[in-house]
Amino acid sequence: FGALPYPRLAPGQDARFALDETLALEEVVPMIARPFSPGNAFPAAEIAAERLGFDKAMIGSCTNGGYDDLMQAALVLRSARRAGHTRALTPLIVFPGSAGVKRRIEQPDPRLDGESIAAVFREAGGEIRESWCGPCFGQGPDALSPGQRAITSFNRNWTNRMGVGGEGYLASPGVVAASAMLGYMGPPSELGLDWEPERFEA
């Protein structure tokens, strides 16, 4: 990339750190966060054993509404289609992260063999909304009603966050897409798909 336009920064040889961790990324698995905190997270396979149903699956908003985020979900949906799961069993609602993303997901993509992300969602029964916060902060027609439960790729699931009296669960776009096809919360492996991060990364 050439020379940096600023001096290179690095810690001194005698630097000491308050925290020094090593993460084994090969051990990372799909997760689902229960209400009412993003930190209340468990392996999605454990949640799947409970066959926990829900009223809506929602993907997008500012946090997981980028093109690559929606591509991850579309890749899961296409793999599910090949395995015989063709339609979502619960409402699947998509909120692109910006107007630009909404336009772009209508374009063919070679990673989807020429299909567009939007076409993959629609074929599975998904609905694509305008780019806005909506139910992520409990507003609009898709906000949760009392007693409703949703699995989403939003970033917060505090009490009443997605609608007064509703329960929000958090997961990656791929896990939300898989859950919509299953009709209960679970990872892509519940659809008979091998979870290979490289395969489902955009």
Which characteristics define this entry?
single chain; 202 residues; Aconitase, domain 3; 7-stranded mixed beta sheet; 7 helices; 7 strands; 26% helix; metal-binding; lyase; iron-sulfur cluster binding; Aconitase/3-isopropylmalate dehydratase large subunit alpha/beta/alpha domain-containing protein
Question: What do these coordinates show?
Answer:
With 202 residues, the protein is an alpha/beta fold. The chain has one domain (53-200): Aconitase, domain 3. The chain has helices at 44-48, 61-64, 67-82, 99-104, 117-123, 173-182, 197-200, and strands at 31-33, 41-43, 56-60, 92-95, 127-128, 149-152, 167-171. β1 and β2 form a beta hairpin. It is globular. The mean pLDDT is 93.
Overall 3D shape: globular
Q: What percent of residues adopt helix (DSSP H or I)?
A: 25-40%
| Terminal residue distance | 24 Å
As for the CATH topology, it is: Aconitase, domain 3
The CATH architecture designation is: 2-Layer Sandwich
Count of helical regions = 7
- Any idea how many domains? 1
Per DSSP E runs of 2 or more residues, the count of β-strands stands at: 7
CATH class category label: Alpha Beta
Q: How does the helix and strand content classify structurally?
A: alpha/beta
Strand adjacency order, main sheet = 2-1-7-6-3-4-5
Strand percentage, roughly? 5-15%
